[in-house]
Amino acid sequence: MKLTAIALAAATLLLLSNAQAATAAPTKPVASAASKASTQQWDLTQLYADDAKWEAERLAIMAEFPKLKAMQGSLGQGAQSLLAGMDLMSALQRRLSRLQSYSSMKADENTQITANQARSQLGDQIYNQYGEATSFVNAEVAAIGRSKVEGFIAAEPGLAKHKQTLQTILRMAEHTLSPKEEALLAAASETLQQPGQIYTLLTNADLPWPKIKIRGKEVVLDQEQYGAHRSDPDPKVRKQVFDAFWPTYKNYERTIGAVYAANLRGTVFNAKARKYPSSVAMAQAEYNIPEAVYLTLVQEANAGLPTLHRYLSLRSKVLGLKQAGYQDMYVPLAKPSGTYTQAEAEALTLAALKPLGEDYTNQLGAAFKQNWMHSQPQRGKRSGAYMNGSAYDVHPYLLMTYNGDYNSVSTLAHEWGHAMHTVYSNSQPYETSGYATFIAEIPSTANELLLADHMVANAKTRDEKIFALSQQLENLRATFFRQAMFAEFELAAHAAVEKGEPITGEGLSKIYLDLLKRYHGDAKGVVKIDDIYGIEWAYIPHFYRDFYVYQYATCISAAAFFAEGIGNGDTDLRARYFAMLKAGNSADPYPLTRAAGLDLASPEPYRALVRRMNRAMDQLETLLAEKK
Known about the structure:
The protein is an all-alpha fold and about 625 residues long.
């Protein structure tokens, strides 16, 4: 979601992407035998008792909007006037975040229910209307001037909770337009969001998924079932799955290309309108993150490709493949000991996270017993996983599809890392309780790494340890190298628009294919990448949140730093870690991570992660060399 600077600084929305509109009736849940007994559904009645209560609140919020318009021109009259305006906006944002949480999550339960999709659109519309009503604020605060605003803050203690928001507005003053221009951009925001909404509808509800038979059972190969079957131990099944799944996206290459091109052009339009030198500069300015972070990540990921190729070659050797293909990327190197119920996954997560301390595990254990999560597999459910921490006065909500494999266990630990971050950051006043994505993915990926370390340390057999090491390596590959590759794709795609080059689905596939081949060592014979897999860019919903995915790679590098130190009993580091989580949005994210002990604009965190990956491969190769 695109928010104004004022909303950005205060809102706590952490949805990975907004799911919108669709067209059918609800269908019955589809659950695997492994997960059926222990999955759960969230309780949205804790937000609103029913849809009618939600609608009543929507109308009540809209009735407050004239007050926002009425305060235009008054913010600079004095400290009390500024406080009154900031408090009014904060109170409405708090209510809006809760309102949109309900409507978006209700829609995500089943993207085929028209009424819920329509309500989600209304939730987005009212947020956009709020943006229009407050579009004058940034320009008005900037016009007051830094010295006068800082004087107001010093004179009025009530403005302390708004200090970070006001400083952000002042910092971005050179990119703030006139009130009329800001109002125009705010009015255009809903239109500029349409590409992401169209993409979500098309890929979650309307693509004609193929049907295939796997071991005699017919499977509708949608996104969920592709994720479930791409790791099949039988190479023929993996090839069958890939051969059936990717042509579906390829058939819509032109359409999805046009949708993504519209998203890119909207971003570039905003960057030019606000006088940024590039789209990535605008994205980084939002939270005052040095561009060096993004560029250093891409540079160091490329420098680390020999390590990635070493891992991919080791995979081929373990799997007995003469020539690995892209369809072999997800099969485990070792057989897991079995499946896990959700209750078992929660117990395993609590055991793995003991290094974080009793306060953390006690709060997490209590939260597991609440209906905060929707983990039940269900036809039409939004794909992927996320945590929504926007309802400050309630609790975090989580969405994932739990299917009983180790990846589900790891995803559960990841998403609850987000949820606990929200629990800790909510010790801040609402106005500074949110946090930037730049920090958000650190506690989630730290949980994954602590889980991986726990699995290695507590493996009962050689095979279990091999499995645990291989899962850790796969996590590092997918979260560091894969996300860095996505980041490089986004740079190239936005740069093409900025240069005035034509953007087509075919052209995007070519950019992506070149990256896919380089990262996977196609020219060196490491992994054979067939041309059709260039369409994979069309499978990634995160691209509709511009320059978002690179933060997975930066965050796992930071998480590796924290997980290693905290796992080894460094209580001082743990204290700095929790200080960072509790800080919320009380300061810019880059200084907060530096205060915790690492600089993500320098090469060292990324090189340390590459070293961690090499150490894990050393252990794995030693185990593989041992006789059973």
